[in-house]
Design a protein that fits this description.
Layout (H helix, E strand, L loop, with lengths): L1 E6 L8 E6 L9 E6 L5 E3 L2 E3 L5 E2 L2 E5 L2 E6 L1 H4 L8 E5 L2 E7 L4 E2 L3 E2 L54 H23 L12 H4 L3 H5 L24 H9 L5 H8 L9 H16 L3 H11 L14 H13 L5 H17 L3 H10 L1
């Protein structure tokens, strides 16, 4: 079984449809369960919770090879394209692939084709202050209420007579000021006093004084020294932080390959899957092959929270082969032989895969 969710262009932003392949039509009263891979919580009408909670769909349509479930904001508003989800429908489970949605609070408003970005709410109108009326100009025939007469002129005192004694005293003061200014200009400036050294600096080790600030390392015993050392991110948090940036496919592949080892933890496997899936969707052949190994039930490397899926494994192996990855050919042959064995055991998914394959 394979499932993917995308925006529903018929109902608008906040709505989507889940396309399910490899399952019989469950009928109109179909219930499904959605589990988040990072913490194992289940989605309910009130949000993510610890216990499993079936979710109803708005409408279920029958399609060739499966069905289509129409969901609303209860599901769309709580999905993140950087997260992995597991969908269970009538006892069958698979990974839910999240495509770009028209709107999700986890991803922000996006201007997706067919769904324009939500316009900002208009600001409330501001009340304008009433204009003050200018006083009316008097007309020619109006009589003034009060006649203001100009004040009488103030008699000016006769200018005092200049004395020779005052002029001589002013000349002496001017000469003294000029001499003082010349002496201040020619005097050499005094050197500023040296700052006093603290006792702690005097007692400092001479080897530490010779080191530059970049070479000196904080003492773990001193209080507050641990604040200068940033805590390393977990593998899953580091992968999400990388994918929120430019996320070049070669850099994502180099970051994921060290995590694909036999002793990898579930969190390391999930982090590598996010990085490889992003690089594979951008056309990297080796990343396509490694993503196919996650879904291949015959692969030996750990796969974290990603369940096996024959259809997805074949699709990614074929994409890697078309893009020139030669290791995909023996992987496809081994997957086909595995499907034949499972078909003889009564596996319906393997039977459908071989029918379309041959």
């Amino acid at each position: 079984m394979h499932a993917s969710i995308s925006a529903d262009s018929r109902r608008g932003p906040g709505y989507g449809s889940i396309e399910v392949r490899g399952i019989e039509y469950p009928g109109d009263a179909a219930f499904f369960v959605l589990q988040r891979a990072s913490d194992g919580k289940y989605l309910s009408g009130a949000g993510w919770q610890e216990s499993e909670s079936p979710l109803p769909q708005d409408m279920c349509e029958k399609e060739a090879g499966g069905c289509r479930l129409h969901v609303g904001p209860t599901v769309i508003d709580r999905l993140d394209s950087l997260e992995s989800y597991r969908l269970s429908l009538h006892g069958d489970a698979c990974v839910l692939t999240v495509h770009d949605l028209a709107y999700s609070p986890m991803q922000g408003v996006r201007n997706v084709e067919g769904f324009p970005a939500t316009p900002p709410e208009p600001l409330p109108p501001q009340e304008e202050a009433p204009l003050q009326e200018a006083p009316a100009e008097p007309q020619a025939g109006d009589a003034p209420d009060e006649v203001l007469l100009p004040p009488p002129p103030t008699p000016q005192a006769p200018p005092p007579k200049k004395s020779r004694t005052g002029a001589l005293f002013a000349a002496i003061l001017l000469c003294l000021a000029a001499g003082l200014a010349g002496w201040m200009f020619l005097r050499s400036p005094e050197a500023p006093p040296l700052p006093e050294q603290k006792p702690e600096q005097e007692a400092q080790n001479p080897e530490q004084q010779a080191q530059t600030p970049e070479q000196q390392t904080p003492n773990p015993a001193e209080p507050g020294s641990e604040q200068t050392q940033p805590q390393p991110l977990s593998p899953l948090a580091a992968a999400r932080e990388h994918l929120r940036g430019p996320a070049q496919p070669d850099a994502s592949l180099d970051m994921a390959k060290p995590l694909r080892r036999a002793d990898a933890t579930p969190e390391q496997s999930d982090a590598a899957f996010l990085l490889l899936e992003d690089a594979a969707q951008k056309g990297t052949a080796e990343a396509m092959f490694l993503v196919g190994q996650y879904y291949d039930p015959a692969a030996q490397l750990p796969r974290g929270s990603i369940p096996t899926d024959l259809t997805q494994a074949r699709r990614w192996y074929e994409s890697a082969l078309k893009n020139g990855h030669q290791n995909a050919r023996p992987a496809l042959d081994a997957l086909k032989e595995y499907a034949r064995v499972q078909k003889e055991k009564g596996d319906a998914e393997a039977a459908v895969l071989l029918q379309n394959w041959e």
